[in-house]
Amino acid sequence: MRVTVTGAAGQIGYALLFRIASGAMLGADTRVDLRLLELPAAARAAEGIAMELQDCAFPTLGTVDVFDDAVPAFDGAEIALLVGSRPRGPGMERRDLLEANGGIFAPQGRALNAGAAADVRVLVVGNPANTNALIAAAHAPDIPAERFTAMTRLDHNRAVAQLAAHESVPVHQVSGVAIWGNHSATQYPDLTHTRVDGRPLGLDRGWYADEFIPTVAKRGAAIIEARGSSSAASAASAAIDHVRDWVAGTPGGEWTSAALPSDGSYGVPEGVVSSFPVRSVAGEWRIVPGLEIDAFSRERIDASVAELVEERNAVRELGLLG
Ligand code: NAI
């Protein structure tokens, strides 16, 4: 399969590429041809990574090519991991951030539209991920919008791990966790449908509201504070999980979380790229239907979705939705 990774020479790229090449994402029987897209200034660094990839002699790795132009980089892509983005600089307003990222994700959407496989799967990791996915999809009218997703799997994995630690159980015993809304501090990690070892969780509401939700939502900042740079290996691992489940299916009828264009489910306006509880069935993400949403959850989902609607309005005003 042809896999294009943008921001290949960045932190996440360095943690991601070797796992893709080793078969962790698409399995031991799938040969992967990697196409690394970088800014011209970082293309040389990407060449160095290509050399290291070659030196691993992974049986699953086919070719590795480096590009500084999106059009050839996405040509024939079956999977596109859009990691490179413009981070928020000092004093940068949200509008400037959205505009700068529009300058990246609009042309990348057009390049995907021009050359990617008709059934390409796109995962946007670069922040603001949900709105970047919306922008890219808007510039790729020939690709169904649902092929554009944004990553909330890291938030999901953080939520599962925090709960497992709190309950003193292994992570595999935790099911039914969901992330709703934006990949931002407003996200809502929902435990109201969660089961532990197959049994409904007796939810400690005080811990849930005062510790669990803020810990998950602010985990990225806590990692930066401790490590001196942002989460990279865990983000790369979540990207692998997202694509693996999308292609191979979520195991055992379980759900996970991913941000996709809303079909209007759960009161999320149609087209907004929001995180939902999802299953992957026959290679397609499907929003888990019919969950009961209590008043506590409703308020938090609505608050995060309101932020996404504001971001959509802002990029629409900037003319970034075409
Ligand atoms: P980084 O700064 O180490 O690397 C980003 C790379 O992207 C750089 O090498 C840069 O040259 C490249 N780049 C920038 N614009 C590009 C373009 N137009 N085309 C191709 N490459 C381009 O950043 P890092 O740590 O790898 O993070 C990447 C992004 O992922 C950031 O936006 C970060 O906020 C986001 N992120 C998202 C997470 C999520 O859960 N959705 C979790 C962690 C990070």
Automatic annotation (TrEMBL):
Enzyme Commission code(s) on record: 1.1.1.37
Annotated source species: Lysobacter korlensis
Entries under HAMAP family matching the protein: Malate_dehydrog_2 (MF_01517)
Domain of life: Bacteria
Alphabetical keyword list: NAD, Oxidoreductase, Tricarboxylic acid cycle
Catalytic reaction equation(s): (S)-malate + NAD(+) = oxaloacetate + NADH + H(+)
Entries under InterPro entries matching the protein: L-lactate/malate_DH, Lactate/malate_DH_C, Lactate/malate_DH_N, Lactate_DH/Glyco_Ohase_4_C, Malate_DH_AS, Malate_DH_type2, NAD(P)-bd_dom_sf
UniProt: NAD(+) binding residues: G7, A8, A9, G10, Q11, I12, G13, N101, Q108, V125, G126, N127
Protein's UniProt name: Malate dehydrogenase
Stretches assigned to the Lactate/malate dehydrogenase N-terminal domain: 1-144
The keyword Transit peptide appears for this protein: no
Any GO molecular function: L-malate dehydrogenase (NAD+) activity
Domain Lactate/malate dehydrogenase C-terminal: 152-315
Binding site for substrate: R88, R94, N127, R158
Function as written in the Swiss-Prot or TrEMBL entry: Catalyzes the reversible oxidation of malate to oxaloacetate.
CDD domains the UniProt entry points to: MDH_chloroplast-like (cd01338)
Active site: residue positions: H183
Oxidoreductase recorded as keyword: yes
Family label: Belongs to the LDH/MDH superfamily. MDH type 2 family.
Gene for this chain: mdh
